[in-house]
Amino acid sequence: MGNTMQNRVALVTGGSRGIGAAVALRLAADGHDVAITFQRNTSRADEIVERIRQSGRRAVAFQADSADPDAVVAAVNGAAAAFGRLDILVNNAALFLAGPIDQVGPDDLDRTVAVNIRAPFVAAQAAVRHLTAGGRIINIGSNVAVRAAFPGFALYSMSKTALVGLTKALGRELGPRAITVNLVHPGATDTEMNPADGPMAGTINEVTALGHYADPADIAAVVAFLASPDACYVTGAAINADGGFTA
């Protein structure tokens, strides 16, 4: 890949922690300048920005609640303005709400749809105005969109399943422009929201072929491949990076 990866610009939504932070750091290590969005924690976003800069790449963070479409669009346009271009959009920011369907309120439904479905759509809509040939849109889904193994996941599974349709349709639409669109379905990943020593870990490990949680860097490696020139002929695809949970 060499210099073909240099001086490209990526925006990672929800890039201050968990999988998003790992993706941002990996893309920087691969030679990209990186913008991230974050919701509230300025100090954590600043830490990721500093780590990227220490690696020799440029970085910037935008505070944006993904439930606010104007903020999402502003972050996309801000990233392109800050670096003079935009090559890669990683739609990672998401909201996880679980519980029996008869306990899901209308506010839960509306916010989940806003963050997990509307935000990736409007981010992609804004990004395509900047992306050129070789551009990438990479959506982060979930293994529970493929296999709803546990009760109480109807709302979250529905929201992540919507990304399948978005990915396929955009892959078809943007193919003539040599812009690829792909989807990564992570399995259980060791983050603050779902720690590898949490109360569900034992059960999840039992139904995962590899028998353990992913490290965020494992998911970032799949995203990095899709962002690279090596994935130039992959589009409209959904890749399960779930340790065999859906096998």
TrEMBL record:
Enzyme Commission number: 1.1.1.100
A Gene Ontology molecular function term of the record: 3-oxoacyl-[acyl-carrier-protein] reductase (NADPH) activity
Pfam family, one: adh_short_C2
Enzyme class: oxidoreductase
Keyword annotations of the record: Oxidoreductase
Ketoreductase domain span: 8-187
SMART domains: PKS_KR
Domain of life: Bacteria
InterPro entries reported for this sequence: KR_dom, NAD(P)-bd_dom_sf, Sc_DH/Rdtase_CS, SDR_fam
Recorded family membership: Belongs to the short-chain dehydrogenases/reductases (SDR) family.
Protein name as it appears in the record: 3-oxoacyl-[acyl-carrier protein] reductase
Organism: Actinoplanes octamycinicus
Taxonomic path: Bacteria, Bacillati, Actinomycetota, Actinomycetes, Micromonosporales
